[in-house]
């Protein structure tokens, strides 16, 4: 996979993930797995692309799941002075 395909593909994956609604943990896990698979395939040699995608999807999914669990039910709000705070949604 060339850098150009990666540069086009990753933003598309991110846009599709942003359009999803539902459980933030599930969304984060799926987004992490997709991005990890794309990145794993991109950085692997031509003979190991499938293995790279599988490893990338696994690591990305685990990372996305951990991120989603840490942020579940929490939203970031911005005050009038520009500062931000996190509270329950």
From TrEMBL:
Keywords: Signal
Annotated protein name in UniProt: Glycine zipper domain-containing protein
Source organism per UniProt: Gemmobacter aquaticus
Domain Glycine zipper, chain residue ranges per copy: 32-71
InterPro entries on file: Gly-zipper
UniProt signal peptide: 1-17
């Amino acid at each position: 996979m060339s850098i150009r395909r990666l540069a086009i593909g990753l933003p598309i994956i991110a846009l599709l993930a942003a359009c999803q609604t539902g459980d933030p943990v599930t969304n984060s896990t799926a987004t992490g797995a997709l991005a990890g698979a794309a990145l794993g395939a991109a950085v692997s040699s031509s003979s190991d692309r499938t293995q790279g995608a599988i490893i990338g999807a696994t690591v990305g999914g685990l990372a996305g799941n951990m991120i989603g669990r840490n942020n579940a039910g929490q939203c970031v709000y911005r005050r009038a002075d520009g500062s931000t705070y996190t509270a329950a949604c």
